[in-house]
Q: What sequence folds into this?
């Protein structure tokens, strides 16, 4: 099995360029299905979730042209029927955005129930509730979501039972091409919600209030092509900030929107880390022991659940007792079981983790259980004395562009080992890059 091998103990120093936001890209790419023209997307992260979604669109009849490493032209104008390969869709949670997009453009959709990181139950009842308010008939059979509308979607008011990023984005997409006005109450406010609204508006939609808890969508007849640049990834940026803090380094995190990082910055400062806002970058410096802190994950602008494992790894090395409350997902502490193998002292009770800071970690073989858990294990390996091997790294490759290259540029001793093609070949082949 492919794995990372990390020899820890070196503080990270230097500069890192943040890529486009995964959770914006995995919504905007399906949204191009609604556009009858060429969409040029810039600052697209080179990650496996993006490659998979582009592949799904091509299988549906779209034309996808790579302009350069992070720019792609997508033309879905010739797509006639929204039928996508079910086995591909099952691999990624974000495939469910194809429902909202296809319902909006074609009045029908057939999408497999979503896959994605195993961080607890991931229902989509709120998405379905929104589609039904707009007049769609939705049923789930054999693991497939069948949605269709007799005439055309008609706008209405959707009051979300809980703040849901996916439901907010999916309903926004369907409403964009519905007849009349749709109001989404109790909407999520994440930066990627605003990015999707800005993308759709740049293609001719009329969406107002994204980033607040009430979003109003005024349905339009059609969307034409255009160009759009995806925002920087708030969570990738936070991951490198946490790594700089945990390793006692000094890192300039470039190509960010500091406002999106406010909650992460504030928590790191509480832990004794210096974070300076330089406009389109933040400078993170940690030159002393980390202080304990408590974390309660909340929807934006609260502390992001997608940063909980990364900060949790740093808190395992802080002086004192820290308490984490994971209020979004049911099961997002599996990374702590892996960190215990490296010396972490943690008690988990339901949604709460109590962490007793230790002086250091020792390297060990560990395995990822999901994308952000994997990032936490890498951070722990960068600090640990000795060698850490991280297995199941496909999770990490889903959401982090060129992690090895970016960390090596910061002085990390990390390499990607490909599994031996033939067990007879003995030791794993060292990856070229
Ligand atoms: C998105 O997941 C992100 N994924 C997740 O990031 C992130 O953790 C999450 O938002 C919260 O910020 C993508 O954007 C692809 P939700 P999503 O709908 O949309 C419940 C990562 O690491 N809920 O906001 O699936 C749900 O169970 C990934 O990048 C319902 O009950 O999250 C959860 O408890 C992991 N019914 C809460 O709401 C629904 O219909 C928030 O879920 C929908 C959600």
A:
């Amino acid at each position: 099995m492919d794995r990372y091998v990390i020899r820890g103990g070196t503080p990270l120093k230097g500069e890192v360029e943040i890529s486009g936001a995964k959770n914006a890209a995995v919504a905007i790419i399906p949204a191009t299905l609604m556009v009858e023209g060429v969409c040029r997307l810039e600052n697209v992260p080179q990650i496996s979730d993006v490659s998979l979604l582009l592949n799904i669109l091509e299988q549906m009849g779209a034309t996808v042209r790579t302009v350069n490493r992070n720019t792609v032209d997508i033309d879905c104008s010739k797509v006639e029927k929204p039928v996508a390969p079910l086995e591909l869709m099952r691999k990624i949670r974000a495939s469910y955005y194809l429902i909202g997009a296809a319902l909006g453009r074609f009045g029908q959709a057939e999408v497999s129930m979503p896959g994605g990181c195993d961080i607890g139950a991931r229902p989509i009842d709120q998405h379905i509730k929104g589609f039904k308010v707009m007049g769609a008939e939705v049923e789930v059979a054999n693991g497939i979501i069948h949605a269709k509308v007799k005439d055309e979607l008609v706008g209405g008011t959707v009051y979300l039972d809980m703040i849901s990023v996916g439901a907010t984005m999916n309903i926004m997409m369907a409403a964009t091409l519905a007849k009349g006005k749709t109001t989404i109450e109790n909407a999520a406010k994440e930066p990627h919600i605003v990015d999707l609204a800005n993308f759709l508006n740049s293609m001719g939609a009329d969406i107002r209030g994204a980033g607040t808890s009430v979003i109003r969508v005024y349905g339009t007849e059609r969307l034409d092509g255009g160009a759009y640049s995806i925002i920087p990834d708030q969570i990738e940026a936070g991951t490198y900030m946490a790594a700089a803090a945990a390793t006692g380094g000094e890192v300039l995190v470039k190509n960010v929107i500091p406002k999106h990082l406010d909650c992460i910055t504030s928590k790191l400062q509480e832990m004794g880390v210096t974070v300076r806002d330089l406009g389109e970058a933040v400078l993170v410096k940690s030159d002393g022991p980390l202080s304990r802190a408590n974390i309660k994950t909340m929807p934006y602008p609260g502390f992001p659940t997608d940063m909980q494992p990364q900060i949790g790894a740093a808190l395992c090395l802080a002086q004192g007792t820290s308490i984490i409350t994971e209020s979004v997902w049911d099961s997002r502490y599996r990374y702590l079981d892996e960190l215990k193998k490296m010396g972490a002292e943690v008690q988990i009770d339901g949604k709460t983790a109590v962490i007793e800071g230790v002086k250091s970690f020792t390297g060990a073989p560990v395995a990822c259980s999901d994308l952000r858990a994997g990032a936490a294990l890498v951070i722990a390996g960068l600090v640990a004395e000795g060698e850490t091997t991280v297995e199941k790294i496909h999770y990490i490759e889903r959401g982090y562009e060129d992690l090895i290259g970016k960390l090596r540029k910061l002085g990390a001793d990390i390499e990607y080992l490909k599994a031996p093609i033939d067990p007879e070949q003995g030791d794993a082949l060292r990856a070229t890059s």
